């Protein structure tokens, strides 16, 4: 017993100057079924009609030669591959013009009436469309929100970078020599903020005595002290508290830290330490019984000092380049202002 032949069908897109149509031609109970629907419109018009072989034979020479609908579909497929049919839309029907391969067969036009939909079907279609559009709008709003957040972050980042670049000249000078070192200092203080610096004290200009240091630097709020040794080490300390020559006790500062620019290390404070009370030293970081970084008065003719105490986390005099005593080339103290 022979297996039944597969049903032939045609699925084709036809385009005129204004619209696109989807054409489906199929075989249903030995009738030729033609469905045409508009593409893209919210409320699509659909046209549909079934033709028997007898109906077709009354529509021109093209259809008179066929004995069954399957043969009609095969021939139409070959015909459409050679030249697509033409569509002309009227008020309540569509004219489908078929142009045969053999011109002697003559053009054939089939009239396909509009498919009528009941009110319930129309309403259901509209509801489906509204649901899809509502979901699309919701998704679009979510995407817009994400884009707005990204744009805001980009703008904030640009403002952050611009402020940093604008303020770099307030710190770059004789000790901090380039933008990389400047950014390192800023990141140590707070990488999420920008700062402006005001030079309060410069040893080679103002003098290297204890009294001058406190005259220039006391009661200024947050400051950063930067030291350069004669062997090229750049290090120092930050405090969020004010220096005060009249302090009767050590000044605890949980936000203070020491740093070395050469090896790019930051040493955070521990054990509730910070600044030493006034004791005749300059830039004196530590507390209790331990000084960890300090300069003696008249330090250019004497020296600076580093000790491995318990106030900041470093060993082997790493802070000052491995030396417990060092010669000072320059010392600068800057007021730190959040910008």
SSE diagram, text form:
Layout: E1 10-15, E2 20-28, E3 31-39, E4 46-51, H1 53-57, H2 69-82, E5 86-89, E6 93-98, E7 108-113, H3 119-167, H4 179-190, E8 195-202, H5 203-206, H6 210-217, E9 223-229, E10 234-239, E11 251-252, E12 257-260, E13 265-268, E14 274-275, E15 281-287, E16 290-296, E17 304-306, E18 325-326, E19 328-338
Antiparallel strand pairs: 1-2, 2-3, 3-4, 5-6, 6-7, 8-19, 9-10, 9-19, 10-12, 11-14, 12-13, 14-15, 15-16, 16-17, 17-18
Question: What features would you describe in this structure?
Answer:
The chain has three domains: 10-116, Dna Repair Protein Xrcc4, Chain: A, domain 1 (Beta Complex); 117-170; 172-338, no CATH class. The protein contains six helices and 19 strands. The chain has helices at residues 53-57, 69-82, 119-167, 179-190, 203-206, 210-217; strands spanning 10-15, 20-28, 31-39, 46-51, 86-89, 93-98, 108-113, 195-202, 223-229, 234-239, 251-252, 257-260, 265-268, 274-275, 281-287, 290-296, 304-306, 325-326, 328-338. The strands form four sheets. A six-stranded antiparallel sheet has the order 8-19-9-10-12-13, with helices on both faces. Strand 1 and strand 2 (20-28) form a beta hairpin. The longest helix has 49 residues, at 119-167. The N and C termini lie far apart (91 Å). The mean pLDDT is 86.
């Amino acid at each position: 017993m022979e297996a039944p032949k597969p049903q032939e069908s045609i699925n084709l897109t036809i385009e005129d100057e204004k619209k696109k149509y989807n054409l489906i031609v199929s075989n249903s109970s030995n009738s030729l079924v033609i469905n045409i629907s508009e593409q893209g419109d919210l409320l699509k018009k659909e046209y549909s009609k079934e033709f028997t072989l007898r109906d077709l034979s009354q529509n021109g020479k093209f259809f008179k030669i066929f004995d069954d609908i399957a043969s009609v579909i095969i021939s139409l497929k070959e015909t459409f591959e050679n030249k697509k049919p033409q569509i002309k839309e009227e008020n309540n029907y569509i004219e489908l013009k078929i142009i045969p391969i053999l011109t002697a067969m003559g053009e054939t036009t089939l009239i396909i009436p509009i498919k009528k939909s009941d009110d319930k079907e129309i309403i259901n279609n509209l509801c489906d469309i509204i649901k899809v559009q509502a979901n699309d709008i919701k998704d679009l709003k979510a995407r817009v929100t994400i884009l707005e957040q990204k744009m805001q972050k980009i703008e904030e980042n640009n403002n952050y970078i611009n402020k940093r670049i604008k303020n770099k000249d307030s710190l770059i000078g004789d000790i901090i020599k380039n933008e990389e070192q400047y950014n390192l200092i800023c990141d140590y203080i707070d990488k999420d903020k920008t700062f402006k610096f005001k030079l309060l004290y410069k040893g080679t200009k103002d003098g290297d005595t204890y009294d001058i240091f406190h005259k220039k630097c006391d009661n200024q709020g947050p400051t950063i002290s930067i030291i350069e040794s004669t062997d090229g080490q750049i290090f120092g300390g930050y405090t969020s508290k004010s220096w005060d020559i009249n302090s009767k006790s050590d000044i605890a500062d949980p936000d203070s830290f020491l740093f070395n620019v050469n090896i790019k290390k930051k040493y955070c404070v521990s054990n509730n330490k910070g600044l030493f009370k006034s004791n005749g030293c300059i830039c004196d970081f530590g507390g209790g019984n331990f000084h960890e970084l300090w300069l003696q008065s008249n330090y250019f003719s004497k020296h600076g000092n580093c000790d491995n105490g318990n106030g900041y986390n470093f060993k082997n005099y790493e802070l000052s380049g491995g030396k417990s005593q060092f010669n000072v080339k320059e010392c600068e103290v800057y007021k730190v202002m959040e910008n």
